[in-house]
Design brief:
Layout (H helix, E strand, L loop, with lengths): L4 E7 L5 H15 L1 E8 L18 E3 L4 H12 L3 E4 L8 H13 L3 E4 L2 E3 L12 E6 L6 H14 L4 E7 L7 E3 L6 H9 L7 H9 L3 E9 L5 E4 L1 H9 L5 E5 L12 E7 L4 H5 L4 H5 L3 E5 L8 H14 L4 E11 L7 E5 L7 H12 L2 E6 L5 H8 L7 E4 L5 H11 L3 E11 L6 H13 L1
Parallel strand pairs: 1-2, 1-4, 2-3, 4-5, 7-12, 7-13, 8-10, 8-12, 13-14, 14-15, 16-17, 16-18, 18-19
Antiparallel strand pairs: 5-6, 9-10, 10-11, 15-19
């Protein structure tokens, strides 16, 4: 016998009440839905009084604001499924997906006649206090934030381990125990056929903590990877001699691992609708805090940063937001050296980075390339590094197979740098936010 699934039905007054009621009973019988409530979205064309929708034992809910009230309904009734029996003009695509995000964030499947969104998998395999670092896109700064959090936790004697999920991760979960990862180690990993600039190497190099690498392919609208070995990697990490676990997502994909807290990283440079529209709000609804990165010109205007913050608060009014900027921190001294900078940052940020490095690190920049993630043009740019003594690069994209090999072949030193997130404005600092997140994780 089919087990019935507790269900909230979204309905409207553009459908005749008898049509709605008959549909609910038909779906109850055909699909195994157990109706808990009819959630009335509006519309008056074919309904005079809500009593016309009455069905025995089924609550009728009439929210003042269908989107804002949805979370309370989900929390109170805890349905397994939300079934959409509405349509245009009452429920358009944008509102439909926002309501879907709320349903998913509360662990319910959201479905209609020709679509079904199920909550992204978040399997509970960790026994230690844990935090996920997720993002709304590629190059928003997740790895930089993860590494900085790991550095902070290590400094406070909490002994973290990092699980990184990446598009270039290893075919089997891979533990990196080396505390001093350098050029020789990375080139040896490359010779094994591994992507030696994958996120777990960067985390290990920057933070000096044990990391576990995993891979994923594909990503759903709410962030679930299509294929991944991240769960296996998390199990492996949980068995290591560490006290806390950081699990780092990939692009806009979320780790399929349940954690005690979630920190979302959003780039101010990203299109707001791309980051937060559609099912993007799901990521905010499951998060305890947000770091907005690149919160400065030329990446974003003050007006855009303010708009982004307001949109985040509108989606999740309880979330803590911190604006940050990135600054390059070389992992070795480059003082008094002639330096060629290689980065993923856009050309527009070049002068800012150059001025900062020359003033802060006391070096002389003799050139730069912003093509680290574009192998087609990177080698051409590197040919302009003739007078440089040092190639200064992020550990991303082609940093090992192109930049590091070029440095070795041309008698130059390669130095890797960490993008340090720095809080801007407000009373909260980065360490304050980290403590806020880990307090949530320990509750």
């Amino acid at each position: 016998m089919q087990e019935k699934m507790t269900t909230v039905f979204l309905v409207d007054g553009e459908h005749h009440p008898s049509t709605v009621k008959d549909a609910v009973r038909e779906l109850e019988k055909r699909e195994g839905y157990l109706p808990l409530a009819l959630y009335f979205l509006g519309g008056t064309e074919k309904i005079r009084d809500l009593s016309e929708l009455a069905l025995q034992g089924i609550e009728i809910i009439v929210p003042d604001d269908p989107l804002m009230a949805m979370a309370d309904v989900m929390q109170r009734l805890k349905p397994q499924v939300v079934v959409d029996l509405s349509d245009l003009p009452v429920l358009g695509p944008a509102l439909r997906l926002r309501i879907a995000a709320v349903a998913l964030a509360h662990g319910a499947t959201y479905c209609g006649s020709d679509f079904r969104f199920r909550p992204p998998q978040r399997e509970r395999v960790l026994s230690k206090p844990s935090c996920s670092i997720i993002g709304t896109g590629k190059r928003c700064g997740k790895t930089a934030v993860s590494a900085e959090m790991a550095r902070y936790l290590k400094g406070t004697k909490r002994n973290p381990v990092v699980v990184a999920m990446g598009r270039g991760g290893p075919p089997r979960p891979y533990v990196v125990e080396e505390r001093d990862i350098g050029e020789e180690f990375l080139l040896s990993e490359l010779d094994k056929g591994l992507h030696a600039a994958s996120d777990h190497y960067e985390d290990a190099m920057v933070s000096g903590v044990v990391t576990v690498g995993s891979r994923r392919c594909g990503g759903g609208m709410a962030g679930e990877p299509f294929v991944t070995n991240c769960i296996e990697a998390a199990r492996l990490a949980d068995g290591l001699p560490a006290e806390v676990v950081i699990v780092e997502g990939s692009g806009s994909s979320t780790p399929p691992v349940a954690t005690d807290a979630v920190l979302c990283v959003i780039s101010a440079a990203q299109d707001i609708e791309e980051a937060l529209g559609f099912l993007g709000s799901y990521r905010l609804l499951i998060s305890d805090g947000v770091i907005i990165t690149m919160a400065e010109e030329p990446f974003a205007s003050p007006l855009k940063i303010q708009e982004l913050s307001e949109r985040i608060k509108w989606i999740n009014g309880d979330i803590v937001i911190l604006n940050t900027i990135f600054r390059p921190h070389p992992l070795k001294s480059i003082r008094d050296k002639k330096v060629f900078l290689v980065a993923t940052a856009p050309e527009e940020a070049g002068n800012l980075l150059e001025e900062y490095l020359e003033e802060k690190e006391g070096c002389v920049l003799v050139g730069r390339s912003h093509k680290l993630s574009d192998r087609r043009y990177l080698e051409d740019d590197l040919r302009g590094a003739g007078e440089a003594e040092i190639l200064l690069t992020e550990l991303k994209a082609a940093a090992v197979e192109v930049v590091t090999r070029f440095a070795r072949d041309n008698g130059k030193e390669v130095v890797y740098f960490h993008n340090v997130p720095i809080a801007t404005g407000g009373e909260m600092g980065l360490e304050d936010l980290f403590e806020h997140i880990w307090k949530k994780a320990m509750e």
